[in-house]
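Journal club prep, notes for RB
We'll compare a predicted complex against what the paper describes. Inputs for the adenine case:
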Amino acid sequence: MKFTILTLFPEIVKAYFEASVMKKAVAAGIIEYELVNIRDYAHDRHHKCDDEVFGGGAGMLMKPEPLDRALEAAGSPAQRTVYVTPSGRLFNQKMAEEFASGGNLIIVCGRYEGIDQRIIDTRITDEVSIGDYVLSSGEVAAMVLVDAVYRLKPGVISGESLEEESFASGLLEYPQYTRPAVYDTMRVPDVLTSGNHAQIARWRLKASVAKTLAYRPELLSKDNLPGEVDSLLREVIDEGGWHEPGTSDPGRTDQK
Ligand code: ADE
């Protein structure tokens, strides 16, 4: 799968593709990427890429001509072309899965107040927001999108990890622990070191339910949840629910 990123600041995005798991996915040929500097397509003397907004208002907008030329060269709109913008459709795991199962992606990063609507009308196939907040530019949003998508491609990370993480089951992921079993008087819940796989699975699902109830209760009303969720939810509520970080810790051996 190839990601073509159109940006005024390719250096921000470059490091992301050259480190860690992404670097390995590129070396393995699972992922290809191309960083396109939109300024290279601005043909005036000053390589101007922004201008004032018609009708007035604060801030500058990215001009249509350089972007249009850069997108034409990249193969848009025949190739799926995402514009990352706070006024887009809200990104989620389902959308990430849909992008991952499709073909190559072109991603346009806006700066300033955004891009000229005529480019959106003629070149963009998807407007995507990564959350209800405004970032200073699209590069970080583009990296969020790429990251959520590329890790779903076969061979990037293990299928088991993908199945167990947050959202895969419709719930938030349960808490996890590693060695040592007792750290500074705090012990790992006994069930996790018991070797009893059925009990471990039940503990994890219950912890997922408790955490989801505390942080994302709206997810519990979805109809694709595991069957035991209802009865575990009742137990969780009876037992007082999730402990917030920094409050009580049920694992502490020195707890009063
Ligand atoms: N650019 C600025 N803010 C953004 C957001 N929330 N999502 C996507 N792109 C953005």
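Talking point for the session: The chain has a mean pLDDT of 94.
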